[in-house]
Amino acid sequence: MSTAGFNSQNGTGTGQAYANGPSQNPVALQQLPGVSYGMTHQPAYNPMQPKATTSPAPGLYPSGPYQPVPPVNSYQPGPQLSSYPSSPGQPLLSRPLMGGPPPHTPPQSASPSPGPRLPPAQATPPPPAVSTTSYYPSPQQPMAPAWQYNTATPPMGPATSMSTHPRGPVANHMNPAASLAAPPPPSSAAYRSAPTPHSTTQLSGPGIPPTSMHGYTQPGTAPPPMNLMAPQTYQPSRPAYGPPPTGPPPAMKPTPPPTGPPMANATPPPKTDGAVAGNGPEASNSYNHVDNKMAGLTQPGPPGRHLGHYPSLPPGYQNTSASHTTPPMHPAMQAATQPFTQAPQPYQQLPGGPGAAQLSPSLAAMSLQSSTPEALRAVNLLQERNLLPPTPVPAPTPCLPQDLQKINCNPEVFRCTLTSIPQTQSLLNKAKMPLGLLLHPFKDLSQLPVVTSSTIVRCRSCRTYINPFVSFLDQRRWKCNLCYRVNDVPEEFMYNPVSRSYGEPHKRPEVQNATIEFIAPSEYMLRPPQPAVYLFVLDVSHNAVETGYLNVFCQSLLDNINALPGDSRTKIGFITFDSTIHFYNLQEGLSQPQMLIVSDIEDIFLPTPDSLLVNLNECKELVQDLLKSLPNLFQKTMETQSALGSALQAAFKLLSPTGGRMSVFQTQLPNLGVGALQSREDPNQRASAKDIQHLSPATDFYKKLALDCSGQQVAVDLFLLSAQYCDLASLGCISRFSAGSVYYYPSYHHQHNPAQVERFQKDLKRYITRKIGFEAVMRIRCTKGMSIHTFHGNFFVRSTDLLSLPNVNPDAGFAVQMSIEENLDDMQVVSFQAALLYTSSKGERRIRVHTLCLPVVNSLSDIFAGADVQAITGLLACMAVDRSVTASLSDARDAMTNAAIDSLTSYRQSVLTIQQPGLLAPACLRLFPLYILALLKQKAFRTGTSTRLDDRVSAMYQLKYQPLTYSMLMIHPALYRVDDLSDEGALNVNERTIPQPKVLQLSVEKLSREGAFLMDAGIVMYLWIGRNCHPNFLTQVLGVPNYAAVPENLYLLPELDTAESQRTRALIGWLRDQRPFFPSLHIIRDESQLKPHFMQNMIEDRTESALSYYEFLLHLQQQISK
Ligand SMILES: [Zn+2]
Questions:
Q1: What pLDDT does residue 50 have?
Q2: String of DSSP letters for 749-780
Q3: Which of 453, 556, 618, 1099 could bridge 285 with an S-S bond, Cβ 3.0-4.6 Å?
Q4: 3-class state of residue 854 by DSSP
């Protein structure tokens, strides 16, 4: 049973959870007592489970690193039921207790195969064998005292702070286009809304304490806002639509529509509660679009094609990408978007492109049996070399009818490890592949339809937003694609703002776009949306001054201060610290900033609370003065101590009343006051082939503070710039649980490491200027029968499916694991919906909704045919990070190897019809063993190669929260030969020619001493120059006469006026432009210190401590044929 089903049974809509305060989900609260975590759902196949473990108890789903699952009974539900035991990454309730006991399925072991599988003894020592059953409880015992997440504290400051918000939420609605990336086309102006009838309702917001149960209107008072699921919705006397359908989703009998457009005085749909009062047809809508995409939609499809019919599933009227004029992009992205621009691969192509009305027949015809699809072609990995495609690997296209696939969610935003969902959990278990979603929900999009409407149409039962995959039973009713509830079409929705006509609910933008953004009406707010608030917390100890980072920071902020997202309410503040905490009074009227030093770090207080966070517009000059003087202020400091913990507490106090973003810059191990840490790294153990210690935090101070921050809508971003060990495993918790980001600049020094300085500069610029969402929550729903149980990324899990994100940034990725709880055998498709509710920097409450639709299949071969090898790898990486921390690194390494063994075994036993010798993989998984080997050699998981602890932990963090596109580069870098770049096949971007060299295998045998090779490893790039590199490249690109003249530590390509130089720089610049962070470039020779880093990425080659690709394949084969 999915959460959707749960909601429908309990009748508590989830609308209240979208309140912008730390209001509680009452459902979650009621779950507290006696819940047994991790036991209520049928276990999914989980390769991360140790083979020897048979108990599925909490360790079955690895809990998030850095916080093992505390025993449930250690939690004491507070009197207000506001303590939260759940925490990110930990096994979540797959179902609540209400609605009857869950069908209990005995836990099963993830794999029948006994014992750990380890590489056979060989001349080359295999990765060390450590018992998979070993479990390392952290000696430091950071493990979860029963902290309480107490949100009883009102998040808003005194009422006076309200008066400082001149722009109420409704005022913002009047110009929704203001914050759009591009001005809307003129036509959209017609859709601009007039002030909605809700104009004044928000005024009641401040009066409602956020903890006062979600802003529900109590019975007997005014009717609740339309979109809230008030309990009274479930009155038994509610007009019956007939029993909620439970049968096969869409009925295939289109109901003839009423003739002619509905008249203004047409009988409105039955009102099921009083909520729609005041929202009659006169309520205007506005529809804004940022580009011409939607304008294209205004031209109807083939004339008359759908006239008069309301198909059971909404048609994809036309290929909305037909008029795409997107600029050329990275092949990976092109590939990823292929489903939108190209016909699916032949085996997926349906004859004749079914019309929507024939959807069911066409779904039925989706058989893959006719011929072996390319994805299932058996590949003998031991024989076929050169499996790596010359261009980046595309995301597979789900096997859906074209009409549906055309409007499906972009895989860059929303992707599933299996693009064909197994009908049952047992089928999934047989396939031995992990089932999960990978999301990049707040990605910068060049095309984003934005809708303003006083009515956001959602399912009455499960609160799903109406989307392209619902079905219209007739003009007045739609059936939810997640819980199958039949809902009314609100009168307002009958009007299509695109065609400006009535009677076309299925042509509304909400039903035509799998990704859409709503400007939320006032019921989505419990208080006025918070202003953009930025607080910078800066290390100014001697060590920090030595690194020289302060200059770069101050200059960057000075340069970009006007680009900081916000409006007239934006606030800013600064705290610096060493052994004491320094505040800066920036109040208007002062002639210069006033520094206030608080030396009592044990009991931190705010000296002048009202003048430390100031309005940026009003106090900009003082802020600029401060930024100009700050670097010099501490130039002579000899203070070496760092009271980071106290500084964070002070910053938390300062931000608590409003919420906001805290940006922390730290350069050393905090060693004074609360949160002080000691070095735990033994440099002699860096190259250990044994298990790695100290991957979990040394103290729970940072996690606790992060949870306090989360409760007050504060996110903490950590910039760690250091030459020494800083215990990122402990410090990182401050960002991890507050939904912040971690930036790590090892060996940062303004003189000795110019490449890092450049990277820091570029990253800062992006950080300061990028889009930001405040006080956000994200909920992921899935079709009834499926459930979500483990989350990966940076957030706090507020309730079973609700992630608390005090800030959301466009560069954050998330992953979730799923299981199948009920047979999906009467379903042809299932859907997943991620809804992100946030406050924009302009103070608008917005909801971004992504919906993904995937087919359900009932054969193993179809499941395999739809496997998405990159998504599987990305999800496994997240799971392995958890496993490394909760169990051990060797456990995680074994589990990853087993994942490859298990899936290929399953393929061989259950899918392959003709047995043949060799190591066989379906074509779609042919890169799986390579990616697994790459993970084993990745900094996060490698053993036997010297790896600093912070580097390792940083890599783990990145694997967990980077969107898949970027984490794949970290896992398997792209290698190109660049000394012979040509314009053949080049892209043309903004009149620049971008060469497109082939992607090469990561093996020394692909290198040539005569050449130059670029390796793109995500956050770093290496340009390796062969000893006999052609002189033309040396002179024309590097500007040096010969190999010996290539300087050590070169990190910039000279800007030479030669074709070769332009091509090389164009390629590197373009690759950098594809990602939101700035990879530094290292130009290396054979003698370079960094050469080992380059060589370590040669994944296919053997190293002293790791198998070659071929050896690894032999090992897999041996295990599979056992
Ligand atoms: Zn529903």
A1: 53
A2: -TTT-HHHHHHHHHHHHHHHHS--EEEEEEEE
A3: 453
A4: strand
The alpha carbon of 430 and the centre of ligand 1 are apart by a number of angstroms equal to 30
Beta bridge partners of 518: 451, 847
Backbone dihedral angles phi then psi of residue 81, each to the nearest 5 degrees = 55, 40
If you measure from the C-alpha of residue 476 to the centroid of ligand 1, how many angstroms do you get, rounded to a whole number?
A: 16
Separation of alpha carbons 113 and 104, rounded Å: 24
Q: How many helices (H) and strands (E) does the chain have?
A: 28, 34
pLDDT, residue 504, reads 84
Distance (Å) from CA 428 to ligand 1 centroid: 25
CA of 487 relative to ligand 1 center, distance in Å: 8
Structure tokens at 737: 């649980």
Q: Give me the half-sphere count of Cα atoms (radius 13 Å) on the Cβ side of residue 105.
A: 17
CA gap 119, 42 in Å, rounded: 31
**Dist. CA 5 → ligand 1 center (Å):** 8
* CB 680, CB 694: distance < 8 Å: yes
Contact 791, 815 (CB under 8 A): yes
Would you say 164 and 535 are in contact if contact means Cβ atoms under 8 Å apart?
Answer: no
Non-local (6+) Cβ contacts of 221 within 8 A are: none
What's the gap in Å between 819 CA and the centre of ligand 1? 19
DSSP string, 578-630: SSSEEEEE--TT-SS-EEEEE---SS---SSGGGSSEETTTTHHHHHHHHHHH
H or E element in which residue 453 lies: strand 449-453
User: What is the CA(488)–ligand 1 centre distance, in A?
Assistant: 12
Q: How many CB atoms lie within 10 A of CB 988?
A: 11
Residue type, 807: N
Q: What is the pLDDT of residue 411?
A: 97
837 alpha carbon – ligand 1 mean position (Å): 18
| Residues, CB-to-ion distance under 5 Å, ligand 1 | 459, 461-462, 464, 480, 482-483, 485
Distances (CA, A) of 280 to 371, 492, 732: 54, 7, 50
Q: Which residues of 486-513 are buried (b: 16+ CB within 10 A; e: fewer)?
A: bbbbbbbbbbbbbeeebbbbbbbbbbbb
Q: 266 alpha carbon to ligand 1 midpoint, in Å?
A: 26
Cβ pair 564, 661 in contact under 8 A: no
Instruction: Give CA–CA dist 849/836, Å, rounded.
Output: 6
Token readout for 730 is 């402990």
Neighbours of 180 (CB within 10 A): 17
- What is the spatial distance between Cα 833 and Cα 632, in angstroms, rounded to a whole number? 51
Provide φ and ψ at 661, rounded to 5°. Answer: -115, 130
pLDDT at 801: 82
- State how beta strands 414-416 and 571-577 pair: unpaired
Mapped onto helix, strand or coil, the DSSP state of residue 665 is strand
CA–CA separation, 1063 and 991 (whole Å): 13
The alpha carbon of 480 and the centre of ligand 1 are apart by a number of angstroms equal to: 5
Q: Are 642 and 671 in contact (CB under 8 A)?
A: yes
CA 588 to each of CA 298, 593, 820: distance values in angstroms, whole numbers, following the listed order:
51, 10, 59
Q: How far apart are CA 832 and CA 850, in angstroms?
A: 8
Q: How far is CA 807 from the centre of its chain?
A: 13
Distance separating alpha carbons of residues 179 and 159, to the nearest angstrom: 28
Tokens of 601: 């770090």
Give all strands (DSSP E) within 692-761, no chain letters: 714-722, 742-746
Contact between 538 and 574 under an 8 Å Cβ cutoff? The reply is yes
Residues 6+ apart with CB under 8 A from 1029: 979, 1009, 1010, 1011, 1012, 1043
885 three-state secondary structure: helix
Which stretches in the chain have pLDDT values below 70?
Answer: 1-371
**DSSP notation for 930-996:** HHHHHHHHSTTT--SS---HHHHHHHHHHHHHS-HHHHHHHHS-EEEE-TT--STT-EEETTEEE--
> Which residues neighbour 715 within 8 Å (Cβ) at sequence distance 6 or greater?
661, 662, 709, 735, 738, 739, 740, 805, 806, 807
CA 465 to ligand 1 center in whole angstroms: 8
